[in-house]
Amino acid sequence: MVRKTLIAGNWKMNGLLEDGVALAKGVKEEFKKTGRRDCEVLVCPPFTLLTSVKKAVKGSRVMVGAQDCHYAEKGAHTGDVSPVMLKNVGCDYVIVGHSERRTNHHETNELIAQKAASAIKAGLKVIICIGETEKERDAGQTIDVCTKQIMGSVPEIATAQNTVIAYEPVWAIGTGRTPTTAEVEEVHAAIRKVVSKKLGRANANKMRILYGGSMKPTNAKELIALPDVDGGLIGGASLKVADFMAIIAASKQ
Ligand code: PGA
Asked: What pLDDT is recorded for position 81?
């Protein structure tokens, strides 16, 4: 298999010091027990927990990521955190362009591409999120919307080694609803074609494309088994060790 499965937990704005560290330790211990090397595991806590979570997973293969970054290295950007700072506290990954940021913070494709490019330059790997709204899906625009988002928010320096795409239909996030497996595969295959157009066939064949949006222990197996799905970006179900571990277990092919 050229593409190693990636199971990433997006904790969003959840977790105080004690429970965040306990969650990270739980994932570390349980993942160690599996002895698996065919799958990568990533947790993305809020900024406030990055250092403690990094410490908590030390000695395991569990990686740590942030949920956003600024594109600048440093300077007068009150409230922002730079990719260099994330790298400095031990982050492996950063998520950019999550739909909650696109919507709540009016982030554009151009801004997301800038963030992704700086993060890659700082030595981080990026997970770039894309996905259509319910209105866009109903209007039959899903592939068009995802194509525009990839063309606009994936930077030129992206490669299969430094970039992961997460397809997250906005209407599936936190709702308990998911597209059918046929619909998911259709979009993932289309995404791979667009990546091929933008970054070349070799990158497209090797780039991981995750599915996100109400992934849970009961649907993870069939979703991750799809030919163009290379793992998951999990919100709600990443907040409980047992659920997150069940999704990791379901990723065994
Ligand atoms: P969810 O969130 O799993 O809670 O639907 C996924 C995400 O937004 O990354």
From this structure: 98
